[in-house]
C-alpha cells in the first residue's frame, strides 16, 4: 500500500478532517475544495508519476528501514551515496516538468541525522521512535508537511528574548508527553498532506531550550490548524490559460499549534538545544544539493518553453540573440546540475548513515543558479514578445465572434495554428508574467534558505587562510 495511485490518494482524504482555513473560511472537504484543486492534482499527479514506465524503477525504491516500496523523492532516508546521484537526476527531471518535485526525502533524512546526534550526545533513544514514524508513513504512502521555519519575530533576537514569543515551543511537560504552542510558517502543500513533521529552524542557546523541539503528528491532531494561501493558479477550470499553474504548484500555509499535546512516542527532540544548529547545517548540505538540481530543471523548462515561443513566432533559428539567451538557460542549468553532482561526489557519510553532500559545492552552486532565474524570466519576455502580457483571454478565444479576429491577427509561424501559438504564449505568461512566476521566483530565492545563508555556509567551509598563505608565498611576504 506504500505506493498509491493518484486516485487512491484522492480517496484517502475521506479518512481525515483537518482544521484548514482558506480565504477566511473553514474547509469542509480538502479533496474537492476549488482553491485546493491544483495542490491535490499536483500531489496526485506525483503519485501517478511513480507508475510511468520510464521513471518507476528510479522513482520507487525499497526502503531498507521499512521494507516497503516507497517514493524515493518523497520519503527515502538517503543512506547510500548513490541515492544522492539518483535523487539529483530525478529532481531535475520532475522539476523540468512541473516545477516542484516534492523532495520530502531530504527533510526526513536531515532530521534522522539530527536525532542521531541528539541520542549520541544525551544518551536518549529518540531515533527508535523516529524510525517507527518513518515506517508508519512508508506503510501509508501518504505525504507529510515540513514545518521547520518559525516566524522568528525580531531577527536580531533569539526566540526566548522576543517580547512575545511566537516560535513553536514546549509550554508544558506532562507525564506521557509535552504540550507545544506557537506557529510555523511557509508550510508548502501542508493542507493537502496527512502528517506534520516539525523541527527547529536555527541555532539555539541554553535559554532557548524549550524551542528545541521535534515531533510528528497527524494533520488532524487536536489544536493543529492551518491558514492556507491559495496556490498561484486560477481557481476556475482552464484549457489554454495557466497551463502549468492550473494543474501544478500548491498552497502554502501558516501552521498554528494551539496548545497541542504531543505524545512521547511522537517526540524526537525535547529541549536538547545544542543539536538544533546541526539540522540547519545538514539541511544546507542535503537540501541545497537537491535545489541545484531542481533549479537546473527550471532552466530546462524555461529553455524548452522559450524555444517553442521562438518557433511559434517564426524566429526560431533566425535571431542569434534568441539562440544566445536560450543557450544561456541551458548552460546555467547544466552548471547547477554539475554542482548537484559534484556535491554528491564529495559527500561524506554522517554517523547516522545519511550521506551529506559537500556544503561548499552545494551552496556555491545554488547561490549561482538562483541568481540567474530573474534574468531568465526577463529573457522569456524578450523572446516571446509583449503578447504574453497583453493578449486577449481564453474566454475571448472561446467566443466565435471574437475568435475570428483573433485567429487572423494573432497568427505567427504558419507551421502552427493560432490556437497553438496562443497555447505556447500562455505557457510563457504562466512562467514569466503571472502570480505563478512570482511563486517560482519565491521558490528559487527563499525556499531552502535565503541567498545570504549560502554565503554564510561558504565562508564557514572554505579554507581562505590556505589561499592567503599561497598568496603570501607568491608575493614573497613572510608575515
Ligand atoms: C515558496 C516557499 C516555500 C517554502 N517552503 C517551506 C516549507 O515547506 N517548510 C518550511 O519550514 N519552510 C519553507 N519555506 C521557508 C524558507 O526556508 C524561508 O522563507 C527562508 O529560509 C527565509 O526565511 P524568512 O522567509 O524568514 O526570511 P528572513 O530570514 O527574514 O530573511 C529576510 C532577509 O533578512 C536577512 N536576515 C534574516 N535574519 C537575519 C539576521 N539575523 N542577520 C542578518 N540578516 C538577516 C536574510 O538574509 C534576508 O536577506 C519556504 C519558503 C518559500 C518562499
From TrEMBL:
<dbReference type="InterPro" id="IPR036250">
    <property type="entry name" value="AcylCo_DH-like_C"/>
</dbReference>
<dbReference type="GO" id="GO:0016853">
    <property type="term" value="F:isomerase activity"/>
</dbReference>
<dbReference type="Pfam" id="PF11794">
    <property type="entry name" value="HpaB_N"/>
</dbReference>
<feature type="binding site">
    <location>
        <position position="188"/>
    </location>
    <ligand>
        <name>FAD</name>
    </ligand>
</feature>
<dbReference type="InterPro" id="IPR004925">
    <property type="entry name" value="HpaB/PvcC/4-BUDH"/>
</dbReference>
<keyword id="KW-0560">Oxidoreductase</keyword>
<dbReference type="InterPro" id="IPR024719">
    <property type="entry name" value="HpaB/PvcC/4-BUDH_C"/>
</dbReference>
<feature type="domain" description="HpaB/PvcC/4-BUDH C-terminal">
    <location>
        <begin position="277"/>
        <end position="475"/>
    </location>
</feature>
<dbReference type="InterPro" id="IPR009100">
    <property type="entry name" value="AcylCoA_DH/oxidase_NM_dom_sf"/>
</dbReference>
<feature type="domain" description="HpaB/PvcC/4-BUDH N-terminal">
    <location>
        <begin position="5"/>
        <end position="269"/>
    </location>
</feature>
<protein>
    <submittedName>
        <fullName>4-hydroxybutyryl-CoA dehydratase / vinylacetyl-CoA-Delta-isomerase</fullName>
    </submittedName>
</protein>
<keyword id="KW-0285">Flavoprotein</keyword>
<keyword id="KW-0413">Isomerase</keyword>
<dbReference type="InterPro" id="IPR046373">
    <property type="entry name" value="Acyl-CoA_Oxase/DH_mid-dom_sf"/>
</dbReference>
<dbReference type="Pfam" id="PF03241">
    <property type="entry name" value="HpaB"/>
</dbReference>
<dbReference type="InterPro" id="IPR024674">
    <property type="entry name" value="HpaB/PvcC/4-BUDH_N"/>
</dbReference>
<keyword id="KW-0274">FAD</keyword>
<dbReference type="GO" id="GO:0016627">
    <property type="term" value="F:oxidoreductase activity, acting on the CH-CH group of donors"/>
</dbReference>
